[in-house]
Design goal:
This protein is 21% helix and 31% strand. By secondary structure, it is of the alpha/beta class. The protein has three domains: 5-109 and 243-325, FAD/NAD(P)-binding domain (3-Layer(bba) Sandwich); 116-240, FAD/NAD(P)-binding domain; 340-398, Enolase-like, domain 1 (2-Layer Sandwich), CATH 3.30.390.30. The strands form seven sheets. A six-stranded mixed beta sheet has the order 3-2-1-7-21-20, with helices on one face. It has a five-stranded parallel beta sheet with strand order 9-16-10-11-12, covered by helices on one side. Strands 24-25-28-27-26 form a five-stranded antiparallel beta sheet. A hairpin with a 4-residue loop joins strand 4 and strand 5. The chain is built from ten helices and 28 strands. It holds the Pfam family Reductase_C. Residues 403-427 are annotated as: Disordered.
Length: 427
């Protein structure tokens, strides 16, 4: 199909790259991009870093290529429903957009603080979008006496790093035993803890916040800990992960929940009975798909590179059909910059039962760790050592014996040990 009407629900990275791939693939029909924000697609990684430190304005993050795309834009009006039988996307303003094909790329939103009245206190922030970053940057510019971050995952760590770069005091609270413990394991988490504390972060692992308290003016002033005690704070950043934007699909008959919208390997969405809809596709953070490198286990990835690659893959399937596109099998990859560290990863770490340092030494802050599961290599993480990472792409794809590369003159003797990751059942 190379004519007719294609609607893209979601005007962010996956939606934009999918739309661009449609045009490159020869689609000559009507192309409409719908976005809940009023902004053209923008880059999210700088929001927790350069935007917060004032190096880049929030409005200067628009993605390249936007102006060259031959498309109609419906911005500032979110998708509100889906009429599958009538092949129409329903918008919040009452508009119906008929389509021949639909690409769902509505992404995810920040998980809010669970107590709504406390979440509304002035000075309580989440960080997901451009406007969030602009408001948070302004709050940091007012030089609060202490910032409290709830969550020590990637966003929490990046925000803490930016706050310390501004010279502001910051406390990070997380119920896990170490920062990034659920993502990288408690072993590398322990390394990150040392780095954060050396940078002046007041780190409180194994700590839960029970409630937030505000003053008479409705501004946050302190957090009450579940174990007793309080932490004074003039500004709070809630960094508790993300929720996929699937609520608007309620009643559509599609298989969707807070964990994502289910689709097959060709990015076709699945209905509640598990059957694909040949007219509707999904890509990016919202898409939950069977990954062939991990036994067909359904995964949903919040990675920049995945949004780009899966948007393009969905476009190929929409134009040429699912058989021609084949199964989406991009190797998961992500990166994070915080506290002077450049962290890069290949593969999925979930379920890893062993890890080994194969290059460098954590004591120097430059090393590469490889993760295994039942004797097979499944992932690798580089810290300030990205040049070593490409050598492990093929072993991860092939499920090579763990560890895959040993005996090099510049390698430490391999000594596998448990990575400290949660079990698959607990993840």
């Amino acid at each position: 199909m190379r004519d007719g009407t294609i609607v893209v629900a979601g005007a962010s990275l996956a939606g934009l790259r999918g739309a661009e791939a449609l045009r490159r693939g020869g689609f000559s029909g009507r192309l409409i991009l719908v976005g809940d924000e009023p902004h053209l697609p923008y880059d999210r990684p700088p929001l927790s870093k350069h935007v917060l430190t004032g190096e880049v304005a929030a409005g200067a993050t628009t993605l390249p290529g936007v102006g060259a795309l031959d498309a109609e834009w419906r911005l500032g009006t979110p998708a509100a429903g889906l009429d599958r039988a009538g092949r129409s996307l329903l918008l919040a303003d009452g508009t119906r957009l008929p389509f021949d094909r639909l690409l769902i790329a509505t992404g995810a939103r920040a998980r809010p603080w669970p107590q709504a009245d406390e979440a509304r206190l002035a000075g309580v922030h989440t960080l997901r979008g451009r406007d969030d970053a602009a408001v948070l940057a302004a709050g940091l510019g007012a030089r609060p006496g202490r910032v409290l971050i709830l969550g020590a995952g990637f966003i929490g760590g990046e925000v803490a790093s930016s706050i310390r770069a501004l010279g502001l005091p910051v406390t990070v609270v997380d119920p896990e035993p170490a920062p990034l413990a659920r993502a990288l394991g408690s072993v590398l988490g322990g390394f990150m803890a040392g780095r954060m504390e050396a940078s002046g972060v007041d780190l409180r692992p194994g700590t839960r916040v029970a409630r937030l308290e505000g003053d008479e003016a409705g501004r946050v002033r302190r957090a009450h800990l579940a174990e007793g005690g309080t932490i004074e704070a003039d500004l709070v950043v809630v960094a508790l992960g993300a929720v996929r934007n699937t609520g608007w699909l309620a009643g559509s008959g599609l298989s969707a929940d807070e964990g994502g919208l289910s689709c097959d390997g060709a990015c076709r969405v699945l209905d509640e009975a598990g059957w694909p809809d040949d007219a509707i596709f999904a890509a990016g953070d919202v898409a939950r798909f069977p990954h062939p490198l991990y036994g067909g286990r359904p995964v949903a990835l919040e990675h920049w590179g995945n949004a780009v690659a899966q948007g393009a893959h969905a476009a190929r399937a929409m134009l040429d059909g699912p058989d021609a596109a084949g199964a989406y099998a991009e190797l998961p990859a992500f990166w994070s910059s915080q506290f002077g560290l450049n962290i890069k990863s290949l593969g999925l770490l979930e379920g890893a039962d062993a890890m080994v340092i194969v290059q460098g030494d954590p004591g120097t802050g430059r090393f590469l760790a490889v993760y295994g599961h039942e004797g097979r290599t499944i992932a690798a993480v580089a810290v300030n050592a990205g040049r070593w990472l490409p050598a492990y792409e093929a072993p991860i794809r092939e499920g090579a014996p763990f560890p895959p590369i040993t005996g090099g003159a510049d390698q430490p003797a391999p000594a596998p040990f448990p990575p400290g990751l949660p079990s698959m059942q607990a993840a």
